Amino acid sequence: MTAWELFIPACFALNCAPGPNNMLAFSNGARLGAYRALAGGMGRMPAFAFLIAITVAGLGAILAASATAFLVIKIVGAIYLVYVGIQILMKARALAEMQALDASIAALMRRDFSIAITNPKAIAIFTAFFPQFIVEGAPIWPQLAVMGLAFLVMEVVAVCLYVAGGALLGRFIASNRVFVQLNRLVGAALVFAGGSMALSRH
Q1: Helix residue spans in 16-101 (DSSP H)
Q2: pLDDT per position as a tens digit, 24-59
Q3: Is residue 122 part of a domain?
Q4: Which GO cellular component terms are attached (predicted)?
């Protein structure tokens, strides 16, 4: 198998992991429908594009070498995730009762962007993951650029899958009580992710 044939399934597995952004896309899909949830889920794309760019440029190596820099970014990201999770937990019932028009696409995109951009594990993943598939002897920068572009394309597919799953669930749920529990699950997952990020040594 070529490096590319190994990269595609491994990368797609990372894209489809049930992280904070994907869980938010699933919840939005169930609560607001496919169109708004999909548009909101695109908010992560510029964040990941930026993180990939600075990783390729070498900032990932700097953060990996500087324990202080990585710790600061990790703590900021963890605090934000916990904050968003607590907000969703506190407003679980109100969010479940919201109509589609009550949540603007811009607001959904901003939340998705904020969660993605404050996750330092993305930089760590890109820094540790991409080099594993570099073909020795070939120009490095083009390979990293193509891998970064492939990651973004597969991230769009992952967003579509989570939104579709949430929207499908939403069509068969008539009770707000289920949406309240779903929102609480998402909020708890975000708090857990933030806490885990803060306590992680890597």
Answers
A1: 20-32, 34-41, 44-57, 59-65, 67-90, 92-96
A2: 898 888 888 899 899 999 999 999 999 888 877 775
A3: yes
A4: plasma membrane
Rounded to whole angstroms, how far apart are CA atoms 10 and 4?
Answer: 10
| Structural domain harbouring 45 | 20-199
User: Is 7 within a domain?
Assistant: no
24 contacts 111 by C-beta, under 8 angstroms: yes
Q: What percent of the chain has pLDDT over 70?
A: 80
- Helices and strands per DSSP (H, E), number in the chain: 11, 0
Count of Cβ atoms closer than 10 Å to residue 10 Cβ: 12
Residue 34 tokens read as: 């496919």
Q: For the residues 7-28, what does the mean pLDDT come to?
A: 84
Residue 175 lies in a domain: yes
Number of domains the chain contains: 1
Asked, for residue 1, whether it belongs to a domain, the answer is no
